[in-house]
Automatic annotation (TrEMBL):
Coiled coil: none annotated. This is Diaminopimelate decarboxylase. Homodimer. InterPro entries: Ala_racemase/Decarboxylase_C, DAP_deCOOHase_LysA, De-COase2_C, De-COase2_N, Orn/DAP/Arg_de-COase, PLP-binding_barrel. Residues 34-388 form the Orn/DAP/Arg decarboxylase 2 C-terminal domain. One of its GO terms (molecular function) is diaminopimelate decarboxylase activity. Belongs to the Orn/Lys/Arg decarboxylase class-II family. LysA subfamily. The modification N6-(pyridoxal phosphate)lysine is found at K66. The keyword Disulfide bond does not apply. Its EC number is 4.1.1.20. The keyword Ribosomal protein does not apply.
Length: 439
């Protein structure tokens, strides 16, 4: 059984995280429950950031908070000297409520509303990552009306296809994101912004996909972006000061996944960019990256209580848990694979094969198709690993199921950082029917 971060097995045979017994966490906070290993998040953050510092390369490591956002998570990211990548007004508002300095916030998104842009400009965020011509027109108009300088990056699609799931590949030409680097769109976006009043163009941004396990694609993307930066300097005497190569660094979900250490991703990126910049005879830009999943993905563990057990002769055995696609949509959406353990029997042999079903009213609500587990009984606590990214962040109230609680653990301590929703929470925005019955 593969253990992550500070996970261990106690003398009682229980799974522990951060020195805390998961069975005690389940008793105190209930299930489903997300448990985050703070020490592992810190380790990953420092692995990215420290490598840039050791190699004396000016950089920003921005936490891609769509992976998991809440006030406590933003505060932890700032404590670890990270910038913050937000993609909505809600994430921006939460970051500001958490006390994140606005200048450390980068605002992404392919359809930012006028209200969201107004919020960003009012807060004076550090950078807007511009995605399309409609947004360029809006930002130029708003900046002129306010007479306010706005720093931007142009998001481009470099035509690099990472080895990943089709639904999470974003760097190819046919994408809803960014300006195409090869059909003239990126050049047109540059012309519309680089000398515009109140617009301070910093450079280029790309994001080529997610769950990437090598550095080749990042290197290819970096080379293409540096080529474009060289062209703009030659043709327009414009110097790009920032090169943002996005995120997408992979993590281990199952034994099929072979991720690299943060240091390796960063070292290879820097090597390629330095070599390309030197050949291009342009100044070395500041390098920005945006790890999200790789910071929190395998730091998160979901705890569930096992309920019903169903045997389909000669087909499979089901065990059902008290959560499902309402707190983890990824298996249904992406066919994502996970591993699990019976947390109160973690020291026992895993010689039973189960399909772990959720409780939602959907036949596709399966968390793991084939899970090698200890013999499971009703009341056992099932721990599903690596659910820290896009679990709680994509959770819903489908079937009017309440969203789980979230707990942070570190060095034997635990803290509730998101309360469990109640049924009162679920109906708080509902209004009674008051239309009069037609005569």
């Amino acid at each position: 059984m593969h253990l992550y971060g500070t996970q261990a097995i106690s003398h009682q045979g229980h799974l522990t995280i951060g020195g805390v017994d998961t069975i005690e966490l389940a008793k105190q906070y209930g299930t489903p429950l997300f448990v985050y290993d703070v020490a592992l998040i810190r380790e990953r953050a420092r692995g990215f950031r420290q490598t840039f510092e050791d190699l004396e390369v000016k950089a920003q490591v921005a936490y891609a908070s769509k992976a998991f956002s809440c006030i406590a998570m933003y505060q932890l990211a700032i404590e670890e000297q990270l910038s913050i990548d937000v993609v909505s007004g809600g994430e921006l508002y939460t970051a500001l409520q958490a006390g994140v300095p606005a200048e450390k916030i980068h605002f992404h998104g392919n359809n930012k509303s006028i209200d969201e842009l107004t919020m960003a400009l009012d807060a004076k965020v550090g950078c807007l990552v511009v995605d399309n011509f409609y947004e360029i027109a809006l930002i130029k108009q708003m900046a002129n009306e306010r007479q306010q300088e706005v720093a931007i990056l142009l998001r481009v699609t470099p035509g690099v296809e990472a080895h990943t799931h089709d639904f999470i590949t974003t760097g190819q030409a046919d994408s809803k994101f960014g300006f195409d680097l090869h059909n003239g769109q990126a050049d047109q976006a540059f012309k519309e912004t680089y000398q515009a009043p109140y617009i301070r163009l910093l450079g280029l941004h790309c994001h080529i996909g997610s769950q990437i396990f090598d550095t080749v694609a990042f290197g290819l993307a970096g080379e293409k972006l540096v080529d474009k930066m060289q062209q703009w300097q030659t043709d327009y005497h414009f110097t790009s000061t920032v090169l943002n190569l996005g995120g997408g660094f992979g993590i281990r979900y199952t034994e099929e996944d072979q991720p690299l250490a943060p240091k390796v991703y960063v070292e290879d990126m820097i090597k390629v960019v330095k070599e390309k910049v030197k050949k291009a005879c342009i100044p070395m830009p500041e390098i920005w990256i945006e790890p999200g999943r790789s910071l929190v993905g395998d730091a998160g563990t979901s705890l569930y209580t096992v309920g019903s057990h169903k045997t389909v002769p000669d087909v499979r055995e089901y065990i059902a848990v008290d959560g499902g696609m309402s707190d983890n949509i990824r298996p249904a959406l992406y066919e994502a694979k996970y591993e699990a353990v019976i947390a109160n029997k973690a020291n026992k042999a895993r010689n039973q094969c189960y399909t772990i079903a959720g409780k939602l009213c959907e036949s596709g609500d399966k968390l793991i198709e084939h899970a090698a587990l200890q013999v499971a009984q009703a009341g056992d606590i099932l721990a599903m690993f690596c659910t820290g990214a896009y679990g709680y962040a994509m959770a819903s109230n489908y079937n009017r199921v309440a969203r789980p609680a979230v707990v942070f653990v570190e060095k034997g301590q635990h803290q509730l950082v998101i309360k469990r929703e109640s049924y009162e929470h679920i109906v708080k925005n509902d209004l009674p029917f008051t239309l009069k019955k037609g005569e």
